Amino acid sequence: MGILIVGLVLFLGVHSVRIFAEDWRRATIARRGEGVWKGAYSLLALAGFVLIVWGYGLARQAPVFLWTPPTAMRHVASLLTLVAFVLLAAAYVPRNGLKARLHHPMVLGVKVWAFAHLLSNGTLADVVLFGSFLVWAVLDFRSARGRDRAAGTVYPAGTLAGSAIAAVVGVAAWAAFAFWLHAAWIGVAPFGR
User: Fold this and answer.
1) Same domain, 34 and 118
2) Residue ranges of the alpha helices (H) in the chain?
3) Are residues 45 and 70 in the same domain?
4) Which residues contact 117 (CB under 8 A, 6 or more apart)?
5) How many CB atoms lie within 10 A of CB 21?
6) Rounded to whole angstroms, how far apart are CA atoms 22 and 15?
7) What is the pLDDT of residue 187?
8) Which residues contact 112 (CB under 8 A, 6 or more apart)?
9) How many degrees, rounded to 5, is the angle at CA 19 between CA 16 and CA 90?
């Protein structure tokens, strides 16, 4: 569990700088340069991600069960992760209605993804992993919306085409992950093949 926690601290820590230390971030970029900042950020985030994957894998070998979720929660989680994938796609597809309305769909997607996994998993490692991501996403969304208000950020209006592309890409990515990649990469088939 210690490796998982260190990974979460590194990964979510670097992703939390804008939440807790925006002025320090700006000063460091001005002093060291954007390339140095992005390089250090990327290395720390990658190291954190590797430790999260390794630590979670180790924790799954000797699970500490806190509760056993009802089988129906797996179906609810599958539906919620579909929403999360569409939100993730909306972060990258230009001029879609979700981004125009929500402004930070990726962070909302992380929030939905984490919540879905908390509903359908009941081990200590799951609570630590997905609970951490959920708390981070709540704080990050609030912080990002605050920065938008302070800067007077205006998001371009969405188009029907952009919205449709975001939905199709999100559903396709969700299907690929739910039916093949989740089992291959995580070792759990969401639909119990």
Assistant:
1) no
2) 2-14, 17-20, 22-32, 34-61, 72-92, 97-102, 105-120, 124-151, 160-176, 182-186
3) no
4) 77, 126, 129, 130
5) 12
6) 11
7) 87
8) 80, 81, 83, 84, 87
9) 80
Same-domain status, 10 and 93: no
Residue 192, pLDDT > 90, answer no
Task: Give per-residue pLDDT as tens, 69-116.
Answer: 999 999 999 999 999 999 999 999 999 999 999 999 999 999 999 999
The sign of the torsion formed by the CA atoms of 98, 100, 106, 112 equals negative
Kindly give, in sequence order, each residue whose CB lies less than 8 Å from that of residue 134, ignoring residues fewer than 6 positions away. 111, 114, 115, 118
Q: What is the span of the domain harbouring residue 128?
A: 64-193
Over residues 20-78, the pLDDT tens digits come to: 999 999 999 999 999 999 999 999 999 999 999 999 999 999 999 999 999 999 999 99
Distance of CA 100 to the CA centre of its chain: 19
